[in-house]
Design brief:
Blueprint: H1 20-34, H2 46-53, H3 57-69, E1 73-76, E2 80-83, H4 100-103, E3 119-120, H5 133-146, H6 160-172, E4 182-185, H7 187-199, E5 205-210, H8 214-222, E6 226-233, E7 236-237, E8 249-252, H9 266-278, E9 282-286, H10 298-301, E10 306-311, E11 323-326, H11 329-343, H12 348-359, H13 362-388, E12 393-396, E13 403-407, H14 414-422, E14 426-427, E15 429-430, E16 443-447, H15 453-479
Parallel strand pairs: 3-14, 5-6, 5-8, 8-9, 9-10
Antiparallel strand pairs: 1-2, 4-11, 6-7, 10-11, 12-13, 13-16, 15-16
Helix pairs in contact: 1-3, 2-3, 5-12, 6-12, 7-8, 7-11, 13-15, 14-15
């Protein structure tokens, strides 16, 4: 048996409302639970502990009685009060520690495709078969083997040579930015995260197109901001909801918007810009697709208030996590400060390899080859949709634009259609994934960026069967007699 313990160092607070007996009980109970008072240890007598604490003996007796009632101690003849068990530790629940912001991010519920896979239209990512892997590998090998400086920390904004190449690309699109007005980030998703972290607080209002990129919605929920939807039409996002509002950020994709594939017309861009400026917002223009429409970008119209967000993930391969933010220097410096706190820098060797790749124009050659093939896939998809889904209209699906935003018959759930299609080995993205309020809607998104031409027609035929199935179920529910 362990000898008697000295508990005279226990602390009690006479100025609080908690009874002294409760304080003594809790102090001893914590030590038993934590293991600092082991099993079979002998507690001081009530007289000894009362004298050590300067309290009435009855106070300690009350505490010991409660410990005995809880099964933690017992009185033994010749031994006094002895610890017989440890307090039961409360179950650890990680959910109770999760922040309210993180708890607001819904769990992703991917729709599992039933084998065999016929066509996966759910992925908007470039086909890596058009990426010149051998050429890029040679570029990486050359850059990495001859420059020891690449294995050290980079300047705060990123490798200068890469920022020079990015600035040149932006100039071609009418966006005049110096290399010092560019921050290299680990993909556009990190860039958007930095913008939310730097310029919003929980409860601030952020305006987004509706529907919009699901990754932006996830970040908005994590930032605990209030989302203001700007409904999409064939002209672009509706600026009406911005009128008379104070907004922190306005997030827009004027060129081949994801998920609709729509390109905002010039007049609507002017209206959106005017309304966003009046709201006091910083405007984020997501250039995930290079501007091809010939319509002036928002960033070219108002350098002081528009941030350009760019990426190579759509032009090269998603595995190359290189993106950039282009904006006025004070904005870039603020963002760089937050980025340093998060991850110091985007990997420097990768920045050097990408800079050399861009300098050689290799990405442009790969993009041209991919665009030619995508245009053929788009044509196949449009023909198949007209044949197998004649009552379904869509946005997008023009030229080398791989996106089709399908408008399903009224009352048909986009999520149910996606689930029914998955059961046939066909992947599509339900409209719910892109809805700012997370509501189911009669839409699905198709992307032909990664689907072989030979599989496009069969995949859409099976999708048509899924739509018919869900539509017939919906009619059966609505036509059921009320008893």
């Amino acid at each position: 048996m362990t000898g008697q313990l000295d508990l005279g160092h226990l602390t009690i607070h006479r100025e609080t409302a908690t009874p002294l007996a409760t304080q003594v009980y809790e102090a001893i109970e914590r030590r038993i639970a934590g293991g600092s008072i082991p099993q079979n240890a002998r507690l001081p007598t009530t007289r000894e502990l009362a004298a050590a604490l300067g309290v009435n003996r009855g106070t300690v007796q009350a505490a010991y009685r409660r410990l005995a009632q809880e099964g933690l101690v017992e009185g033994r003849v010749g031994s006094g009060t002895v610890v017989v068990g440890a307090a039961t530790e409360e179950p650890f629940r990680i959910e109770e520690l999760v922040s309210r912001k993180a708890a607001g991010v819904p769990e992703e519920e991917p729709i599992a495709l039933t084998p065999p896979l016929v066509a996966d239209f759910s992925r908007l990512a470039p086909d890596e078969r058009f990426f010149p892997l051998e050429e890029f590998t040679r570029t990486v090998s050359y850059a990495w083997s001859r420059r020891r400086d690449l294995w050290q920390y980079a300047p705060p904004l990123g490798l200068p040579e890469l920022r020079v190449e990015i600035a040149g690309r932006l100039t071609e699109s009418g966006i005049e930015r110096s290399p010092d007005e560019i921050l290299v980030v680990s993909g556009a998703q990190q860039g958007l995260d930095l913008l939310f972290r730097t310029f919003t607080d929980p409860g601030d209002t952020v305006a987004v197109e509706s529907p919009t990129y699901s990754g932006a919605l996830a970040l908005a929920r994590l930032a605990a901001v209030s989302v203001l939807p700007l409904p999409m039409s064939t002209l672009g996002a509706d600026p009406g909801p911005l009128l008379g509002r104070r907004v922190k950020l306005v997030y827009l994709m004027p060129e081949r918007q994801n998920p609709t594939g729509l390109t905002t017309c010039d007049s609507r861009r002017r209206e959106l810009l005017e309304a966003a400026l009046a709201s006091g917002a910083l405007i984020v223009e997501d250039g995930f697709e290079e501007p091809e429409s010939g319509i002036s970008t928002l960033a070219a119209r108002r350098k002081d208030r528009v941030v350009w967000l760019g990426t190579l993930s759509k032009d090269l391969v998603p595995g190359i996590r290189i993106g950039w933010i282009a904006a006025e220097r004070p904005i870039i410096e603020r963002l760089a400060r937050v980025k340093r706190a998060a991850d110091f820098q985007t990997p420097v060797p990768l920045q050097a390899a990408v800079a050399a790749f861009l300098r050689a124009g290799s990405d442009r050659r790969a993009r041209r080859g991919r665009s030619e093939e995508v245009a053929l896939r788009v044509s196949c998809a449009a023909q198949a949709l007209a044949e197998h889904l004649p009552r379904v209209s869509w946005w997008g699906g023009d030229g080398a634009n791989p996106l089709f935003w399908l408008h399903l018959p009224e009352g048909v759930s986009g999520r149910r259609v996606a689930e029914a299609a998955a059961g046939r080995g066909v992947g599509v993205s339900p409209g719910q994934d892109f809805d700012p309020r997370g509501e189911d809607r009669p839409n699905v998104r198709l992307s032909v960026s990664r689907v072989e031409r030979r599989d496009v027609e069969k995949g859409i035929r099976l999708l048509g069967e899924a739509v018919v199935e869900i539509e017939s179920r919906s009619r059966a529910v609505f036509s059921a007699p009320v008893v």
